[in-house]
Q: What sequence folds into this?
């Protein structure tokens, strides 16, 4: 009988210990879960592009969608669902000024009203669009496309004091953005030999270009993509001359 009593006490103690262990484990699991939830970043929903949107495209009802985004990574320019729940419908029919990639956050500054001109909505603030005459010979063989960057050269011919024809060429503007070739402004992926190129310039650059076009011939030199984001300056180097003999006439060409 004593053995039975001892066995009963041992079993009871084991059961109590197991119950206490399970309770402690459950409390620890709940505490860990709460910590995990608190450690998770708070999320918001922002408006993004559903597909690639090129410059000049109209925003349709399926072009935008809401995307979950960490609150700590929010930019004040982003459009959140909490602030503007009807933004998808509000932006229906707007024009894209600068292209979006699929999944890229939508910014008000990159959209414009549809009643504005297609080219004017693509112009950056303070910029002007100016068209210049081009050909395959003066536009990198016709390989200048919209959104390329070019340098603009002016070539002039003058008769010097000795009666000789002097030809000189120099860079007047650098790193200029090409907005359009003829009337094609975006989405062009093949070479186009156009008759006009529309360039994005500041007001001061417009004056320089207009005066230059009246005094000589303009040429566009295509820049490498690697150089398109560099800020460059025009430097004046010592001029060199080359004499070209054509029969009895001698032309002096200045090289900048």
A:
């Amino acid at each position: 009988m004593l053995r039975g009593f001892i066995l009963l006490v041992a079993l009871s103690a084991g059961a109590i210990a197991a119950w206490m262990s399970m309770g402690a484990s459950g409390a620890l699991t709940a505490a860990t879960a709460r910590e995990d939830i608190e450690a998770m970043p708070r999320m918001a929903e922002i408006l993004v592009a559903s597909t690639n949107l090129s410059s000049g495209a109209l925003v349709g009802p399926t072009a935008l969608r809401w995307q979950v985004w960490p609150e700590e990574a929010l930019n004040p320019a982003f459009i959140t669902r909490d602030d503007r729940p009807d933004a998808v419908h509000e932006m229906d029919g707007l024009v894209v000024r600068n292209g979006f990639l699929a999944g890229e956050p939508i910014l008000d500054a990159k959209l414009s009203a549809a009643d504005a001109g297609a080219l004017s909505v693509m112009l950056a603030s303070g910029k002007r669009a100016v068209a210049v005459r081009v050909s395959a010979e003066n536009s990198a063989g016709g390989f200048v496309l919209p959104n390329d960057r070019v340098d603009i050269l002016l070539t002039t011919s003058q008769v010097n004091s000795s009666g000789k024809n002097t030809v000189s060429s120099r860079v007047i503007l650098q790193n200029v953005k090409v907005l359009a070739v003829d009337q094609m402004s975006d989405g062009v992926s093949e070479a186009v030999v156009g008759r006009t190129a529309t360039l994005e310039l500041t007001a001061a650059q417009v004056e320089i270009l207009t005066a230059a076009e009246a005094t000589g011939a303009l040429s566009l030199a295509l820049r490498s993509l690697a150089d398109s984001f560099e800020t460059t300056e025009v430097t004046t180097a010592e001029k060199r001359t080359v004499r070209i003999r054509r029969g009895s006439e001698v032309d002096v060409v200045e090289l900048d």
Notes: Helices lie at 2-39, 87-90, 203-215. The longest strand covers residues 165-181. The two ends are 118 Å apart (CA to CA). Residues 117-222 form a domain with the Thrombin, subunit H fold (CATH 2.40.10).
